[in-house]
Description:
This protein is of the alpha/beta class. Helices cover 30% and strands 30% of the residues. The strands form 2 sheets. A 7-stranded mixed β-sheet has the order 3-2-1-4-5-10-9, with helices on both faces. The two termini are 24 Å apart. The protein binds S-adenosylmethionine.
Amino acid sequence: MSEQDLPLCPADYAAHDAAYQRKRAAGFAGWSDAEELAEQLELLDGLFSHSAIPVAGRALDLGCGAGNISFWLESRGYSVTGIDVSRVAIDWAIEQGRLSDSIVNFAVANAAQDNLDFEDKFDLVLDNYCLHCIIGRDRDRYLSNIFHNLLPGGIYICNTMCAELRDPDELSFFDAKSRTYMRNGIALRYIGRHEDIINEIKAVGFEILQMELFTDEIQDSMSIIAQRH
Ligand SMILES: C[S@@+](CC[C@H](N)C(=O)[O-])C[C@H]1O[C@@H](n2cnc3c(N)ncnc32)[C@H](O)[C@@H]1O
């Protein structure tokens, strides 16, 4: 799908604040509950066995939420920065960091803003289920920001929802034209076809090193490892 084809549909990234308030009150570990988090860390463990992934260096955790994946990266020896659009999530991450010896640097930032620029570039960008939150033409900006903030040879690892969506509740809000599910006119998630997502990542200059598709009775997802040359 070309950038021109992507419809202009309003996103509300700040809505994640309310979700974090609910999840924290419900006793979640962060965005996910403890069981889902353990499954995600197992998936990441497998992805990190790829030979192209640097074993140390500077890592950026995009859409880091309450920081659990950032702490995992730190425990593997990376020097970690975590950013998220949600102030509630970042406050939660900072609080969790203070309870341990973590020195992860957390900040509130919109990863799809114009020209997101870190002075010190990264060896690795990890995007654990943030890309599907990014809607319409913001996606090109988001992916370009990742490319721009990686060192040459740097690696982008992405886990994202993709088609097919099978959840009957969410399907009833699915808009096939924009491939988003929408509530009250706001697009909440982009459910792209896997080939379109791969093409978006290639279009900003990445080489795809690995792609794995996971089918599920509710929602498919994919893992991608890409490299900046
Ligand atoms: C599905 S959650 C995953 C959170 C975290 N990566 C994890 O695995 O626990 C998606 C995250 O992306 C963040 N997010 C959504 N849009 C964003 C944006 N434009 N810039 C930065 N973060 C964003 C949300 O606030 C949320 O924390």
